[in-house]
């Protein structure tokens, strides 16, 4: 198969695909599991009105609900993974749609649980929680009761659950539009016409030929500009949904609604933005340095991703990348690296791009089956090696969480997840820097690491600020349009990139193409995550068995603690701005080293 031809899904070898048989052996087995959701739901509903009768009644309902939730999670994971592997596959779309409908129906039918649980007198429920038979459910119940101030009546909860499926419409339409329907004009490279996709776009922006970067950038955003009003409307719909749910439950804002469940103070979010703002001069200094190193008379937005060291060629096969991860992550011990690398080679990963496949990468860990990873791995992009390590960190976090916790409290928060992933990236960087044979390679790695920290800390904070501004506009009565959203985003671009950067008329369309914006207040966790990860990586590599064991306590805690608490166990306090400032200091040191080189 020609290197530049993107294969269809059925042309991809089985060895390059994930093995979903740990979920279901066949689509027929999946269908059977799907059909079991309704009777399992009925078993839970049988306890309606009886939760407060006795501890035995509540316990029996919890066990029935656990059985239901396990099936729903597995059914949806299987369908979702198939769909993301090929979003043009009608059968996969159908399965995911039916899984979502079954989930929504079960949520609606069991919506009595939370209001009824909250109606049990505190003295009674607290005495039950201390019974030994409630050991597997105690943490789950405590976290449920934390939401008591914002739980509505049974009828109101049912109404909210009935609209769960329709609330996903904005994201689903955005994903189909941008990953399947949206077509981009080809890019010309070395007198050859090459396809431009969501996945290849990043590769083109790393191209040392500025003409290639410019054409890819303009062709890419031209495609989005043609649909700007549609995409803006989809995002506005998502924001309005967030505001609706927050107001319906009685939160003072959508930000409070997003953070309350994990006991993350709003000050963590706002301190992140404020601390990054205070350090923007260092970021502007970096862009000035980039302009100088690249020898440009003016810096354009399509110049910020190209490697600063032009002559370094990095071709890394998939198997070579796995072995680099094995060596780099050695400080975590042989057991960790053996489990991860065996999974990367045998069934956890969907490795390469194919037509219709979702762009980017993710880890999808569940209680049943492998902690699956979607990649679009390219051998000529060293960043994809870091992506492998990143997603591997997620999956190993899932592995340790599910093997050390009961189902009802195994699932960790996204706030914690980004720590485990970026921790792995930092160890890979440190390993490659130690192994670098030439000053040029060291310069290449330093510049790449500076770019990675910038992308994860500064850029995700900019995204987080955009989300906050968009939601606050709606909450204050201002409707969102393409013009309003683009204006907000352009102002942020100019603030964060500084005076050296020259933007194109279409540059502010970047704010309308970010998939994570459809999961509100998600992206700030990348920034807090890398800050915690840098601190913990330093602590583990400079420490001994005790420091490593503290980190594994964090990985194994799953959902048994709130995220701020679990990170304190690992050795870092994210309730303060100190880890953020320390991470920004790491970036400043990298910029200084690059200046010297």
Looking at this protein, list some descriptive labels.
mainly alpha, 597 residues, 24 helices
Report on the architecture of this protein.
It is a single chain. The chain is 62% helix and 3% strand. A hairpin with a 2-residue loop joins strand 1 and strand 2. The relative contact order is 0.11. A 3-stranded mixed beta sheet has the order 4-6-5, with helices on both faces. A two-stranded antiparallel ribbon has the order 1-2. A two-stranded parallel sheet has the order 3-7. The two termini are 42 Å apart. The protein is globular. The chain contains 24 helices and 7 strands. The longest helix has 37 residues. With 597 residues, the chain is mostly helical.
Main pleated-sheet profile: 3 strands, mixed
Counted by DSSP, the helix tally is 24
- Care to count the β-strands? 7
| Strand adjacency order, main sheet | 4-6-5
In the predicted model, the low-confidence regions spanning at least 5 consecutive residues are none
What share of the residues lie within helices?
55-70%
Q: Indicate the radius of gyration in whole angstroms.
A: 24 Å
User: What structural class do you assign from the helix and strand content?
Assistant: mainly alpha
Average pLDDT, rounded to a whole number, is 94
Strand content: under 5%
| Shape label | globular
Please report the distance between the alpha carbons of the first and last residues. 42 Å
